[in-house]
Give the backbone structure.
Amino acid sequence: SQQGEEDPQALSIQEGENATMNCSYKTSINNLQWYRQNSGRGLVHLILIRSNEREKHSGRLRVTLDTSKKSSSLLITASRAADTASYFCAYNFGNEKLTFGTGTRLTIIP
Amino acid sequence: EAGVAQSPRYKIIEKRQSVAFWCNPISGHATLYWYQQILGQGPKLLIQFQNNGVVDDSQLPKDRFSAERLKGVDSTLKIQPAKLEDSAVYLCASSSPGQGRETQYFGPGTRLLVL
């Protein structure tokens, strides 16, 4: 399967702490994206990083990409209760078709 | 700007019955996707349309699943007959042509339970 792997599968932290989740994939990619899914809802695009980029920021989000290790990480700083959700990495390698990872379930404890 | 619309939101059927899902993408989005998301997993692409033509349906179980996109706008996904393992959330997404086409916009999904 080409599906990416994410770890940890689940993560619980106190509000205000930082959360880090990782994604590994198996092929060469054009870009890698991170999506958030709140319980029972569709996915929301968070950030996209291209294969020639190493780091990208958006608000409290920081994404890194290491193409030599075929891995990416998403850091959420100063977490809030509203960040409780599942987070998925997704990547493509030639067209607009996305392959999603297995997801990390993040719980922020108030 | 209105988002991707899907209906119904929930559906419960018995195995061997038929079911259909409807999706209306964001206006102007040429590309439309249907995904299947089984509980605890990431979404899996079933079919991708570019306007009203199929770009990729390699993971669509064609013996029971069918999809169409009439006039390059709305789309329907049908399952006939349904099996227990079809219980999942069916997500529709769309993307715009040109710059930014890599980003997909998702609807709320249809949660299907097959008994």
Notes: The two ends of chain A are 38 Å apart (CA to CA). The interface with chain B takes residues 3-4, 30-31, 33, 35, 40-45, 48, 88, 90, 92, 95-103 of chain A (CB under 8 Å). The mean pLDDT of chain A is 93. The first strand of chain A starts at residue 5 and ends at 7.
